[in-house]
Amino acid sequence: MTAAKDKRCTEDEAVAELRSGMTIGFGGWGSRRKPMSVVRSILRSDLEDLTVISWGGPDVGLLCASGKVKRLVYAFVSLDSIPLEPHFRAARQSGVVEDEPYDEGMFLLGLQAAAWRVPFLPTRVGLGSDLMRDNPRLRTITSPYDDGEELVAAPALTMDAAFVHMNRADARGNAQYLGPDPYFDDLFLGAATKRFLSTERIVATEDLAKEGAPQSLLISRMLVDGVIQAPNGAHFTSCDPDYGRDEAFQKSYAASAKSPEAWAEFREAWLTLSEADYQAKLRADGGAR
Amino acid sequence: MSSKQTDQLADMVDRADVCVVAVAECFRGDGEILANPIGTIPMIGGRLARATFEPDLCMTDGEARLIANDEAFDWPNGAVVEHFNPYRQMFSWVWNGRRHVMMGATQVDRYGNQNIAAIGSYARPKVQLLGYRGAPGNTINDTTSYWVPNHSPAVVCEAVDTVCGIGYDRAAALGPDAARFHEIRRVITNLCVLDFETSDHSMRVRSLHPGVTVEEVRAATGFDLVVPDDVPTSRLPTPEEIELIDTVIDPKGLRLKEVPNP
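Above: the input entities. Below: the structure tokens describing the complete assembly.
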């Protein structure tokens, strides 16, 4: 009998699969359910020149501030309770990152097009706006039907690798969200060549049904190459209902954008540690939920 | 009612409550669609519309549900959930023509073009803001209004630096087919109600909040507004509406923090 694949791995093993110059997508939304333990692993790596695709939150800010980003593909970047992401702003205002902006709906279509393996999906979104000027990748298309309407062709946002963070998963990659919103995590995995999920807890497949209804099982193992057990792995973003956002930590993160010295201090305190040491330090500080 | 009586009444009414009523009026006639006001006073005003003259509106909890409650925040007795409305579902409403959104605007110009992406040149912004968010898609697909709690010439300005939400001039340039779902209905500010009901859709003063003069609005605006000969005063809340706002919709008075009295 042949055994089923066991996909369990660590953040560092997953990140070792990446190369500089790759296009990498991160699931979650704003400062919610972000695969932050993977982001921290990337920050400790030698990777550079990344193209980052994200419903942007502190994943984007941290990668920008650490000089990992060549190009940003996004519709917004926000920390939710702090509306403007200061590290992202600094990167844009100093001109160190290339910018590929989208409308949110167009961004959804780009992910869906990539997951469905078509080059674009048509939409009315973007017509008349400066997006058509600011994102030179965008093209329009004329409907081949009798209406002849001119529409925007939202380009497929294919990526070399994608990372998402889920509340529960089994070792084979079936995964579950227990919070209010699935966001777009299934589409990121569908759009990527290498597909990883981190999770609060790996459980037996038969136990997934004890945690939530079948419709909470957003991710199928067909979409997953690696499963990372990462308790508190979304810290400091929210991972409801397991834990909320660590607002105090997020404030200190945001404040670190004030000066190079403040950033160096934050970086030294939190971003040079292994994930185990990061979590241990949080517990010692009383910051872990 | 004489103008003197109106002034006396106006003295007794909070500016925030006038704004709430102006927001509510903005959704009048919308029927069974998703009223999606974003911001403190917009959320209160949308709730007021549904609780009084526009009962079929659908509204969100600000997260992933449509809820039936009259309370704008917190839902102390529990949220009454009507529908699962995750973020991705919002685009189905927008593209299906089932939504009237009231967004914020860092800049809005005479034709209703709106900017929330960046101040200065987009390529190398002086101030990076949120990004384009959903503004292009909202304005090409559905009715859109704007909420400006700090009416000033920098916000209500001659030309926006980046066009995120498209105004009437951009829509006209696209032609009647492409722009057939475009409508910028109102801009509600802390001073007045503005609309685009002019021959060329340039911004007009629709009503002044009690105690505000045309001169004050002109001074707070970065271009020449269309000002009719006789500008009405914004509708004042009825005693029943004030009771509803005070006791149910916003008992904590969050609206008074967003727009304090002058």
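Note for the figure: The mean pLDDT of chain B is 95.
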